[in-house]
Design a protein that fits this description.
single chain, alpha/beta, five-stranded mixed β-sheet, three-stranded antiparallel β-sheet, 18 helices, 8 strands
Amino acid sequence: QSIYGEIPNLFAHGRSVKKILNLANVFSLQYGQPTTKQADIGYMYMFERDSDWASCLLSPLTYEGLLDEVFGISCGTVEFGKEVTGADTSIKLQLSSKDKMFDKIRNKHFASIFSVLGVTAKQLSAAQTAASGMNISEMKSFVQNDLKIMKAQSKAVALHIGASERIQKLKGRYFETQLPVEHTVVANLNLRENIDYIEDRMAQLAPPSISLRLICLLSHCSDGLSQGDHNRLKNQFIQAYGSHHIITWANLTKLGLIKMKGGAELGKGMVSQMAGLVAAQYKSQGFQALAKKLNLVSDTEDISLSDPNTAGYVFNGAYTPVSCRIVQELIRGQASSAGSVKSGSRTGPTTSGAPLVKDALKSVPGETIFDMKSKDAPKIGLILFVGGYTLAEVAAFRWLQTVTGWQFIIAGTGNLTANQIISQCERL
């Protein structure tokens, strides 16, 4: 804000957002108010990570998200090994909009990647063929202006095709079996079948990160596990992967990714557990209430993956990230109050805008802050994630930009994946 001016409009939700805003005020008092009078950024939306664990735990299906999942992206760079390059040496590729090929496919659903790369490869091949029929002056101009660019694009296309083939090889069977399970979990359907699938994966000694992701997703989306399911899954997991994972399980429980219904915990007395269950009946709090009010879980049959009509395409249409849906609803409400009918979103609940968001967020822990001072502020929003953001959420906001005409700047404590969370929880 000291550089771009004080942001006039604020939305924030989370347990710690008030402390963060108070800390920002302390910095303002210490370093002085911004010298820039005209704010370049009109809106700030602040979210804490624990308001939407599902976006971390679900499998990302955009190309950039899968690159991070399979190869790992560090400081905007991905390293491809010999299985991608076809050579004995690895190659580091900088992922940015300067790479025209990557900029074109980074937010695409993986199902459409090969068709886009194939079309581009054919266009480059046709351009190289056409160069053979040029006269001397045309050839000179081609070498000076286009040849270097075409070589760079051809190399990039080859790398991205190799990376896509590697992703397909590693994730192909997984897409067929695990994605349907993830989607029924977020929809709160087929509980027994989903638990049976997780138990089968543990019995087959699938990587522990896969089993834990599914257990955490089931716990989060079911608003907790029953004590019987919790104990059985924990015992089977420890027996399958080793007693050292007791630490992992305990850390995930502290984070709230694994929990029991009604707030019951191991070590508590029966009276305390019953009190928690009774209290839960009178307090509608949890993922399913939020998902229902914000229409986060939708029917995947009417989703276009090649030309998305909803931000939920990042998860095959099964789920829309909470942050993106909230910002979309606030923009829709703002447009409605201004007499505009252009919202660029699917038909949703009859109530929209700030009233819908306020009512929905009563279902999840944390404080909600609305501080809207200017209706004429620039349509530029700073999306601040406290605790990390996912590349699926970034792709969802890029989609929202295209349908609303707004510009969004994503900021946060870092890029976060489920594998990173589990890896960190394995430490004492």
